[in-house]
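Budget justification, computational time. The allocation requested in the original proposal was used primarily to generate structure tokens for proteins on the priority list. As evidence of use, we reproduce two of the resulting records. The first is shown immediately below.
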Amino acid sequence: MDTKSIINHELTLALSTFFEQYSQEQQSRLRSTLIAELQRMRLELEKCESNDSIEALTHQFVGIARYLQLKNTVPMANSCDQEQFKHQLNDLLNAVMDYVNER
């Protein structure tokens, strides 16, 4: 397995562990809210013109990753560059959307 496959697999396992704490109805609401928030962050990131302007977004992302108990799965560097952060954000969004599609 390559690194990206390993990260995606670990994300899926972590998301599964997180969501299984909740009822089906709560899981559905949490997934919808999470997808909407990550998509909003991605759109906002596309508008950013420099690494300095992504500080608030990276802070929000770290908060989401901690809430989802992904601190050991998602590299949460507050000082990453815009391109690296974009990949992290897209990886998490894709993992959540894949998780939803599998259910």
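The second record produced under the same allocation is shown here.
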Amino acid sequence: MNAGAASGVGTAVDGATGFDMATASGIVAAAGRLGRTVATAESLTAGLIASTLAEVPGASTVLQGGIVAYQLSVKQHLLGVDAELLARAGAVDPRVAAAMAEGARTALDADIGVSTTGVAGPSAHGGKPVGTVFTAISSATATATFEYHFPGDRAAIRQAACNAVLTELFGVLSRGTNGESGRL
């Protein structure tokens, strides 16, 4: 799956933090109701998704944990991303995002894994322009990837990526891509 922008959830962004706390609260409520757990693998966002979810009361019932995987070695050794893929495609690639989400789900024994990888700037990376972001959501039955091109500075791109993943995850939990809530 490839999407240019997140859809399906309002953007009730907290004025103080800039993060979509309404969607984070919806994720915790929906995942709790469905009995689903979530794990994160974050490169570009470096823990922002897990941190945003953890701000919500009751998050401990659904958030298994997160892995900040900034370095290729962490992506490979902790998340199981194929070394040849990393060497060939680099870190900013939809297949890497997919493998990261799958790796987080497996390593942290969660029902759903989410991931981010991208270029926050200030310079392009591996031929990818600043603002290029790939995210993924993985369940035991499927993995979906998303591509974004966010404007702004480093902080704005990281924040937008976090909010995009929250929106994607809420969408899966509220409707699922196959019509069954909480499943891709």
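A brief technical remark on that second record: Residues 154-174 form the longest helix (21 residues).
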